[in-house]
């Protein structure tokens, strides 16, 4: 379609039509001077400036607005198909200033940038994904270091020491339990034997009380005191002593 012509085809054709009269005019003016006036006078530029200053009619303005509006839509849609915008631009391309036409032209051929746009978006998405993955890797690395530190702290020595200590305590507690059970059984047996023991001790108590009572009844009433009786015995001893002394004295004389 004529509306889908490339910028090189349309733009170059348009410039060639305008540059040929300008070139002929410069050649005619050059004949009037003995030096090259191209360095001091550019009639093409003068004509372009004059063209840019001309006011645009309403139809062209409306077409430019129709071109501008879809250009504000999704960039993904534009790089997929700019045919309608390109067709509208072709209607006014020759009627607008060259600088404006040159500015608009790349926008009506955005399809050629579709691959670049998609790749750029994909790279941005890939970078974000990479950043998330790197953050996850960093977190996992930290976890690895923490777990490695915990692993380094683990040793069979302290664990075995705890096992040995607990085993020794277990043996001691079992011995204490056995001793406690033996004492418990003894106390339970005592409790079971308590009625018989009570009766036995009651019988012994009664017998002892009876013995005391019987002995109390057998007590004789003894007159005097030990001192008096000792004095009486001493008096007898003295009598005996005096007799023995008298006999010995008589025999020796």
Q: What does the main sheet amount to? A: none
Number of strands: 0
Number of helices: 9
Coarse shape: rod-shaped
Low-confidence stretches: 1-29, 46-53
Cα distance spanning the termini: 196 Å
How do the helices and strands follow one another from N- to C-terminus? HHHHHHHHH
Secondary structure: helix percent? over 70%
The fraction of residues in strands falls at: under 5%
Mean pLDDT: 79
Rounded Rg: 70 Å
Report the structural category.
mainly alpha
Question: How would you describe the overall organization of this protein?
Answer:
The protein is an all-alpha fold and 253 residues long. 80% of the residues lie in helices and 0% in strands. It has a domain at 2-112. The protein is built from 9 helices and no strands. Helix 3 (58-71) runs antiparallel to helix 5. The relative contact order is 0.04.
């Amino acid at each position: 379609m004529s509306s889908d012509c490339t910028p090189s085809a349309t733009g170059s054709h348009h410039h060639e039509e305008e540059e040929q009269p300008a070139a002929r005019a410069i050649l005619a003016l050059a004949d009037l001077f003995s030096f090259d006036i191209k360095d001091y006078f550019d009639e093409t530029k003068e004509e372009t400036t004059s063209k840019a200053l001309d006011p645009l009619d309403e139809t062209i303005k409306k077409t430019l607005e129709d071109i501008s509006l879809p250009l504000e839509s999704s960039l993904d849609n534009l790089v997929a198909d700019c045919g309608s915008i390109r067709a509208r631009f072709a209607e006014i391309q020759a009627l607008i200033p060259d600088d404006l036409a040159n500015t608009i032209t790349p926008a009506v051929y955005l399809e050629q940038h579709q691959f670049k746009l998609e790749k750029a978006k994909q790279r941005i998405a890939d970078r974000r994904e990479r950043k998330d993955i790197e953050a996850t890797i960093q977190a996992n690395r930290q976890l690895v270091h923490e777990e490695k530190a915990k692993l380094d702290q683990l040793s069979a020595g302290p664990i075995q020491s705890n096992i040995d200590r607990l085993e020794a305590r277990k043996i001691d507690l079992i011995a204490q339990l056995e001793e406690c059970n033996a004492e418990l059984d003894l106390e339970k047996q005592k409790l079971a034997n308590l009625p018989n023991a009570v009766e036995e001790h009651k019988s012994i108590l009664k017998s002892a009380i009876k013995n005391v009572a019987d002995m109390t009844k057998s007590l004789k009433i003894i007159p005097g005191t030990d001192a008096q009786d000792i004095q009486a015995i001493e008096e007898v001893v003295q009598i005996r002593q005096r007799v023995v002394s008298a006999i010995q004295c008589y025999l020796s004389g």
